[in-house]
């Protein structure tokens, strides 16, 4: 190849042997590299670069001060490319026997392919703000790194030393690319102009248009419950109910409310297959929505008032959240049930945005009607939108799909839990906003029993979490005693009270309720 490069004239093509087995990754480093080892440290080392490369959703981080834990990185985006990495050597040989300036050296080039570059990381964003651990007083700058960072075991005096207040924010900028806000100049009116009164009709700046689903919301304190839907809700559903599939869904939902007057939306979606957007219109046509009280976040059949029927206690809602922590035997990251969203996995700006969900099409809303809607297509769509039973039923030896769940008491499919619910059957006196028709603190007893069942399930599925000596000593190598009485059982209960911190039951997930309510307001 060197001989061909030497004999080739200006502008001539030179054949190159490709090393196809050598795949390379290119990083366009935003700086002048003088020391390769120090440059790799700013990228997290070879191990850090390999870890980022293995996950296509991650962005490569560059820390200009890799030893500073308060350094905020600049991020690189990942792109695919088809490039070559070449090693070109230029050799110059003087001509012998030619004196003076007429002796032009003979130049040859040696071209060698190192590998094929299929991925490149480009730093296209701006560097984030930096917040140094420095205290400024009287024009003097004092470093506080040796006071706020504990690099080795320290004595008690280290924790009682006087320090200036230093609380750096965890996140400065959510985005690393500039954006134009397109501010408009303030409008200047003629003298004597008066602004119109602000009303709901001319208010500008609403986050979105009002959704006209016409749901009826009822509070626990309200005296009466609606007996029929709003007329706009009826008209909206009749306008969208344009095919036999919709009529079948309407009949199925009517049968569900005839069998059971109170349902959650997830339970309905697990029973019948209906497009979520169409269900938003159908539910206000069939039932009203309870906002507060023991039936909050549930849909109740028109004309049915659970506050007047003691047997309606089985339809009450239980806001259950899986307890996690070291005292429960597993930490946040070890829990088999992962959270939907977590502050521990904040994705901006080091993670690539996921592809947004597709918007519902008219084909989905009409559910395969018309000439193209064949029987096979309808059959395949019969369970297209159905959810699993685990989204609303709690069973023994099974973990909930999410860390926070809304269960109706009748859907707690465990005999022990049903005994707690029916302790006062026939003796219900008053319906309270907190406990409904159940005995006081029934929700607390249910949560404790469910937490114990989940702990046993996790122990069976992942025994390694409970195999350490410390955890074994804390658990005593056995399950809590279930006898009637005894000194040993009393001791166990006292130990459990010491380890267990006060658990404050939730009055309902505001986020979950607001999410569903925002579909109708």
Automatic annotation (TrEMBL):
It comes from the Eukaryota. Residues 167-321 form the Transcription factor IIIC subunit 5 HTH domain. Keywords: Acetylation, DNA-binding, Nucleus, Transcription. GO terms for cellular component: nucleus; transcription factor TFIIIC complex. Residues 25-132 form the Transcription factor IIIC subunit Tfc1/Sfc1 triple barrel domain. One of its GO terms (molecular function) is RNA polymerase III type 1 promoter sequence-specific DNA binding. GO terms for biological process: transcription initiation at RNA polymerase III promoter. Residues 485-502, 509-521 have a biased composition (Acidic residues). Involved in RNA polymerase III-mediated transcription. Integral, tightly associated component of the DNA-binding TFIIIC2 subcomplex that directly binds tRNA and virus-associated RNA promoters. Belongs to the TFIIIC subunit 5 family. Part of the TFIIIC subcomplex TFIIIC2, consisting of six subunits, GTF3C1, GTF3C2, GTF3C3, GTF3C4, GTF3C5 and GTF3C6. Interacts with BRF1, GTF3C6 and TBP. This is General transcription factor 3C polypeptide 5. It comes from Phyllostomus discolor (pale spear-nosed bat). The lineage of its organism: Eukaryota, Metazoa, Chordata, Craniata, Vertebrata. The gene is GTF3C5.
